[in-house]
Amino acid sequence: MKYIVDIDNTICDTHNKDYRRAVPFKDRIAKINYLYDQGHEIHYWTARGSSSGIDWTELTTAQLKWWGCKYHSLS
User: Fold this and answer.
1) Rounded Cα–Cα distance for residues 57 and 59 (Å)
2) Cα 15 from chain centre
3) What would the pLDDT profile of 12-48 be if each residue is shown by its tens digit?
């Protein structure tokens, strides 16, 4: 099965679009990682920067790595 997962306020607590200070929800990430380990496709999807025009890809990719997220793609 293919899962599309939002990032902010789904796998992390983000207040006022302050992405640098987002705090991961480790229990939710563990559940998604379990699905990945079971062979499901995990695709993270975010609207970060859609209204500001700022490219948050580098920070977001680093956060997913720091938080131990397993996934197939990030959009």
Assistant:
1) 6
2) 15
3) 999 988 999 999 999 999 999 999 999 999 999 999 9
